[in-house]
C-alpha cells in the first residue's frame, strides 16, 4: 500500500481529530505542519491502517532525522528507500500546481 502524507493529513482533518484540527489550522494559515503533528498523524495511520502491519510505502515521510527516529521508536525501521532525481523545472511546476489547486495562489 502507498500512502502520502497529504492523504493522511486530509483523513485526520475530515475525521476532525485533535491532530486533524491542528494540521488543518496550520495548512489554512500556509504554515508548515510541526513534526509532532506529522508524527502523530503517521502513528495514527499506522495503528489503524489496513495493511500497515505488513508492508507500505510512506511518500514524503520521514523528511528529517526527528521523523525517522520517531518511526524507530515505534518499532518501524524502513528497509528500502526511494530517491528521485527530478529536474528543478518539473519540481517548480508541481509546487505551483499544488498551490493553485489549494487556492493559495491564483
Alpha plus pi helix count? 5
Question: Class by helix and strand content?
Answer: mainly alpha
Mean pLDDT: 84
Beta-strand share of residues: 5-15%
Total number of β-strand segments? 2
* CA distance, first residue to last residue: 34 Å
Specify the biggest β-sheet.
Answer: 2 strands, parallel
Q: Could you estimate the helical fraction of the residues in percent? A: 55-70%
Shape descriptor:
globular
Low-pLDDT regions: none
Q: N-to-C SSE series?
A: EHHHEHH
Query: Measured on Cα atoms, how large is the radius of gyration?
Result: 15 Å
How do the strands of the widest beta sheet line up side by side?
1-2
Q: What's the helix and strand layout?
A:
Elements: E1 2-4, H1 5-15, H2 18-28, H3 35-48, E2 57-59, H4 65-73, H5 88-102
Helix pairs in contact: 1-2, 1-3, 2-3, 3-4
Short description, anyone?
With 106 residues, this protein is mostly helical. It has helices at residues 5-15, 18-28, 35-48, 65-73, 88-102, and strands spanning 2-4, 57-59. α2 crosses α3.
Amino acid at each position: 500500500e502507498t500512502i502520502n502524507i497529504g492523504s493522511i493529513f486530509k483523513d485526520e482533518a475530515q475525521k476532525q481529530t485533535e491532530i486533524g484540527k491542528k494540521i488543518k489550522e496550520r495548512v489554512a494559515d500556509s504554515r508548515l505542519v510541526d513534526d509532532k503533528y506529522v508524527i502523530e498523524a503517521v502513528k495514527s495511520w499506522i495503528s489503524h491502517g489496513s495493511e500497515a502491519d505488513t508492508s507500505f510505502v510512506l511518500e514524503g515521510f520521514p523528511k528529517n532525522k526527528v521523523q525517522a527516529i520517531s518511526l524507530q521508536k515505534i518499532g518501524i525501521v524502513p528497509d528500502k528507500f526511494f530517491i528521485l532525481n527530478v529536474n528543478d523545472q518539473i519540481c517548480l511546476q508541481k509546487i505551483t500546481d499544488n498551490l493553485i489547486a489549494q487556492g493559495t495562489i491564483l
